[in-house]
Give the backbone structure.
Amino acid sequence: MENWQKVTRLYGVLVVATVTLVGKQCLSEDTVKIPYPTLSKQTTVLTEPIDEEGFVDYLTALNNRTAEGVTPENNFEIVFREVMGDRNLEEIAEEYYRLLGVAPSNDSENRFLPLDDYLLEKYPGDSSKSDRSKFREVLYKLQSKPWSETEHPLCAEWLKRNERALLRISDGAKRSQNFCPLVVPDSEKSSEANLISVRLPSQLERREIVSALRLRSANRLNSGNDGGSLEDLRTIQRIASLTSQTEHPIEWLSAVGFHATARTGEIVFLNHAKIRPERLREIANEIDRQEDFPSPLHTVDRYSRYMFLEAMTKVYCQPETLKEIAQGAKVVPPASRQLLKPQVLDKQLRWGNRQFDEMLEICEIQDSLKRREASEKFSEAFEDSLQKRKENLLLEFLTVSKAEMWGITGRDIVYALTAPALQIVDSHQRRITRKRMASLAFLIEAYHLERGEYPEELAKLIPDYIGDLPADEHSGKPFHYERKNNGCILISFGPNQRDESSSLTPKDSDVNSTGDDLVIELGTTPQ
């Protein structure tokens, strides 16, 4: 997510720099015509809808796509807004609710009490900042172990005051659709960067709901309410699945984060719940049957690509700037006249689309090591291509010769938006791997309870517990497994395929405790 925020800041700087440079170079005594791009699959990808200025309205196109099949009756976001209110919508509220197709809710009985508001109530004033900070740290740690109301009464009270809200969320998460409109505040609308300025009000709010559910799951586990504990984790999983129905990369990554929270909670549950082996088998099957996420590549193919096309087109055209220049200028230098030809813009859009196409092909490589190798080659070829194209006037205008003062190069325009695709694909593979590991862990524990020991090797689970062993999505190979002390450890070596966490790792290794490995330990926590 931080990489994506850097990209948006990069475009903000690029827009400002280009406006300034165009204004200095494009002088005219006559009307300067805006060089609208040719509408085609090769240039603008979309040919409709068209906005008031005559450009493709990518924002509306994305909202229309996400809203397909969504109604007020099946949209989870409407329930979420009833619970959270519109405090974080601020100036986008009117447009947000218009796109949702409902009026703001006046339901105060089911309203969620944010943690910050609760802490300000309990620890008011600036002098209590440290107390509020300590409480947050305690609350975070309590998500990973059973805890009681007696030990942590304030945590219990916060959950109690949010009981109605969490019940409403749990019911609402059983809906089938999720449409969170993409809206830009009026104060941030510009002719250059609508997709960059989109607000995501539900992203952080859902994170707090997920944290509350995970906290309550651990509390219910302590009280022996295993069914309630597991149901809270299932609600988190449903929220993750619903959130993944998005066109925005950041929201999709948030969904992966929620999914990881649910999976981690399942292992806490597995290590503490008093549960029969046959029920463990049932839970493993339930995990296998859970709805899968859509591939994240559509967020690169559409949102990232559209962001590039919108920014490149409107930075290049600058209709407002060109109109001002036309009214008061006297001369258009020959070099600048070349910039104002639609053919030049079309050429840049086609070039950018080819880069996205190639990057998408790389992202579809399943083997993470081969994908990274292909990405490195792509980057090198990209740099070489740009160097050879320096004679192209527009590209030179947007690269070192004119924008060096801003620390921007032409490769940033496309590559800054395609590079995060690798992170998204890695996250997708990790999510699939977590699901397979969680299901396998429940079967391993069932074996342990029925036979009095953990299996010597995963193959011992065949055929009584599983037909075939699942593969690590990163490598296509079986997961690493070891019996360890009185328990066992299950490991995925992650995207880099290096052992960074097992007992096989050399003691003098300079890697951290787990690196990018995914690790599940069973039997090491007292039951």
